[in-house]
């Protein structure tokens, strides 16, 4: 059995669905169910004895201690995090509480649990911490992609909070011997993505006839990783990664944001054309850039390929087509997550900038 935190969120839910599609090993799903945690994403597992959902916070020591003692997991995979840069700019405290303080409390619980294990159970136990490439800061157009040796230079409250959690995880390995693994991934996209991030926001707004807000000149470059490829990388790191090591996970797909938006528009033109026959790209609107917006991220995923044999299965072209198709085929899911609070957030974030 494994314990997965934050497993009702975008990447966590995809991970649990893929895990149980390939294995009968049960999963304990601990999720706080904040705005981005959505049990509807896991509806297909309702009644499945292999999936045990627990509503709770990684910072709740008593709860986590009880879950570890009761279920005796062989591994903990930590997805639980506040992850949206814009939200961290407007309200950084939640990011410090979850990403820093929450990770600390989780590590303390896991350290105590691992310390009580013996023999093979102790030797084989792993704590896998899922992080982001944003901890490395920003790159110029000519800089080589981030490797695991890049210094940490976070530029937003979000990335600073994730950098702090990464440092805590590293320290618990070097100080206490806790067998940790860390992955730093690039921008994920794919099914079940909460529609405030770039790709799902563009799809949802386009279909609703709304503007497609693009920050600044739209030339911010990101490396794009299909979420199911990310999940396969995490499974591989959990299986064969070396304790104490960090593995960068990327899609080898560097693209500027405006190209992503235009690609989504072109796919929608093909799959779900506007009633008036006009292109969705007409809805693109440039808005004032956000403060401290990093210009370029890029991941060098050579290490995980060389040491663990992992590489992404999807190209951006195949992955983005699957993503757009999923949103078109799952309008009920989209409507379910679009609460009033969500709409107010989008209005607050983008409305004044148009």
How would you characterize the overall build of this protein?
- By secondary structure, the protein is α/β, with parallel strands linked by helices.
- The protein has a domain of 225 residues: NAD(P)-binding Rossmann-like Domain (Rossmann fold, 3-Layer(aba) Sandwich), CATH 3.40.50.
- Helices cover 44% and strands 16% of the residues.
- It contains 13 helices and twelve strands.
- Strands 3-2-1-4-5-6-10 form a seven-stranded parallel β-sheet, with helices on both faces. Strands 7-9-11 form a three-stranded mixed β-sheet. A two-stranded parallel ribbon has the order 8-12.
- Strand 1, helix 1 and strand 2 form a beta-alpha-beta unit.
- Helix 1 crosses helix 8.
- The model has no long low-confidence stretch (mean pLDDT 93).
- Order of the strands making up the biggest sheet: 3-2-1-4-5-6-10
Biggest pleated sheet: 7 strands, parallel
The assigned CATH architecture of the domain at 2-187 and 227-250 and 298-312 is: 3-Layer(aba) Sandwich
Mean of pLDDT = 93
Estimated radius of gyration: 20 Å
β content, as a range? 15-25%
Q: Name the helicity range.
A: 40-55%
Structural class call reads: alpha/beta
